[in-house]
Design a protein that fits this description.
alpha/beta, globular, 3-stranded mixed sheet, 35% helix, 12-stranded mixed sheet
């Protein structure tokens, strides 16, 4: 008998009324805005009230080794872990990102978890949910329209059209509009100029929404967003163009966290969705605060490996929120370690290489150098780490033991096998117990990787050397000019949000395992003054993905009963 699909499993469960979930959290009915019977938004006033009434829960970030193109089940593990925590008697919640439509219809498919560890309703989670991403896109593009309109109507500020920094966005992977020319000229069609489109989750507006502490902070951050510079080099902000207020209006409801549930009826907060390779890769500060005020323990997910989303969680998100983590979980799969050990090849959408399912302790041990480095990356912030071994039926006890040995030698507090995908929370109780013990111990010596007043180039080099394992960085001329300008403008204090491939510890996706002796090229640096960080671009990072030769959207359709099919 074949294992049912994620969509079949999700539909096999009758969701609880979301108002019941909200009431169990201590939310009042007037603090909950229903979007149908199974999802809701929570008013910000509830966060303020509950934080004043209750102690903060324990805060756990779930990260991973350097993933394969298939991913290693980080979201699935996060959901399963929380279900396991609830099963061992802890009041626990999930706090994760909303997926972009680009990957849903492109390579990755859905991102609500998998098997018996999912957030439901699965279709809503993956498609439009409550419309937040569309609101973000509208607010971003409104600023772009105001900018071009100002230039068209006399340009009284003196904007240099060649200095426009603000792209346009769309939440579909579309390589044809990565670079484009807008405006056909003449009296009515706008000044012709080159621009680009980014995927909406890469928008600074997405990052701003995820880091904002309240509506007033959102308004202030949007006002600081830099859209262009004048001919004499002065920054032009959204406040200067008087568009920040309208952007805030479009985002007023999107700022409220979304409440859903797990397959086992526990609370799941889903809010914001920045990518970790081109943005900071974490869900919203507000969702975490709400979850922490209503639960004993909260598990949030940081995108991709610990060198990506976890480093940004610690250095950017925790700086912005003032929250401090108690523990981290590092997710690993045997098949990924074999790949890092030089065995097999993984291509999304193609059958798994048989070499990755055959026992090979030597390859696992060799590839576990990547695991060891990612554990070290977590420990660099003085946070206790638990390794979650996301097992598959083909994994052997000898391979699992090799992972345990490497994990403990690298400083992990524990390494635990988890069967959350086929068994749900019941298969994650051992992992839940280990994570609770680590979080209960806490991270009293937690510290950032670098101080605020360190020069920007030194912050970049610190991340490259200490987190990636590079021997140094090569700052190319365009990047050097940008760094000098940003420091001259008073942005030296900002943290750094590196944009690089997620498929390697380095900037080069071909370098697997734990590469050494490489130098990281910094080809350019962008400023996100509203979000509050700078973004160095490493290697050939793109901010607009393209669709594969066989997009996942080819499998998605509506059946004769009006039900969605093919979503996975």
């Amino acid at each position: 008998m074949s294992f049912p699909s994620d969509l079949e499993i999700a539909r096999s469960v009758t969701p609880r009324p979301i108002l019941d979930v909200a009431r169990e959290l201590g939310l009042r009915d007037d603090e909950v805005e229903l979007y149908g019977p199974t999802k809701a938004k929570v008013r910000l006033e509830a966060i303020t009230r509950l934080e004043a009434e209750r102690p903060r829960g324990k805060y756990v970030v779930v990260t991973a080794i350097t993933p394969t193109p298939l991913g290693e089940g980080k979201t699935t593990t996060t959901v399963g872990l929380v279900q396991g925590l609830n099963r061992i008697g802890r009041r626990a919640a999930v706090a994760i990102r909303q997926p972009s439509l680009g990957p849903v219809f492109g390579i990755k498919g859905g991102a609500a978890g998998g098997g018996y560890s999912q957030v439901i309703p699965m279709e809503d989670f993956n498609l439009h949910l409550t419309g937040d991403v569309h609101a973000i896109g509208a607010a971003h593009n409104l600023a772009a329209a105001f900018l071009d309109n100002h230039i068209h109507h006399g340009n009284t500020i003196g904007i240099d059209p060649l200095s426009v920094l603000w792209p346009r966005v769309v939440d579909i992977s579309d390589r044809a509009i990565r670079k484009a020319v807008v405006g056909l000229g003449g009296r009515e069609n706008g000044l012709p100029r080159e621009t680009e489109w980014q995927i909406t989750v890469a928008s600074e507006v997405m990052a701003v929404l995820a880091l904002a502490s309240d509506l007033r902070d959102l308004r202030a951050r949007l006002g600081r967003v830099i859209l262009a510079t004048t001919r004499d080099g002065r920054p032009v902000t959204a406040e200067d163009l008087r568009v920040a207020g309208s952007m805030t209006v479009l985002l007023r409801d999107a700022l409220k966290p979304n409440l859903l549930q797990t397959l086992e009826g526990g609370p799941a907060f889903v809010h914001c969705g920045p990518f970790a390779n081109i943005a900071h890769g974490n869900n919203s500060v507000l969702a975490d605060r709400l979850a922490l005020a209503t639960n004993e323990i909260v598990c949030t997910e940081a995108g991709f490996g610990a060198d990506m989303g976890a480093e940004k969680f610690f250095d950017i998100k925790c700086r912005a929120s003032g929250l401090r983590p108690d523990a981290a979980v590092v997710v690993v799969t045997i098949r990924a370690l074999k790949m890092h050990g030089g065995v097999g090849r993984i291509v999304a959408g193609k059958p798994l290489d048989p070499a990755l399912t055959a026992e090979n302790v030597e390859a696992v041990t060799a590839g576990a150098a990547n695991l060891a480095k990612q554990i070290e990356n977590v420990r660099a912030f003085n946070v206790p780490a638990v390794v979650a071994i996301n097992v598959f039926p083909t994994d052997t006890e000898a391979e699992i033991e090799a992972v345990r040995r490497v994990s403990l030698d690298a400083g992990a507090r524990n390494a635990v096998v988890s069967h959350h995908h086929p068994e749900g929370g019941a298969g994650a109780t051992d992992l839940a117990a280990a994570v609770w013990a680590a979080a209960d111990e806490g991270a009293p010596a937690f510290g950032f990787l670098y101080p605020d007043d360190m020069p920007l180039v030194e912050k970049i080099e610190t991340i490259a050397v200490r987190i990636y394992g590079a021997s140094g960085v090569d700052v190319l001329p365009a990047a050097a000019r940008a760094l000098t300008m940003y420091e001259d403008l008073g942005f030296r204090h900002l943290p750094v949000c590196m944009a690089k491939t997620h498929l390697s510890l380095s900037h080069d996706a071909a370098l697997k395992g734990r590469p050494t002796g490489f130098r990281v090229p910094i080809r350019d640096v962008r400023l996100s003054a509203g979000a509050g960080f700078i973004t160095p671009l490493l290697g050939e990072m793109r901010t607009m993905p393209g669709l594969p030769s066989r997009p996942a959207g080819e499998n998605i359709d509506i059946d004769d009963d009006g039900e969605i099919v093919g979503l996975f």
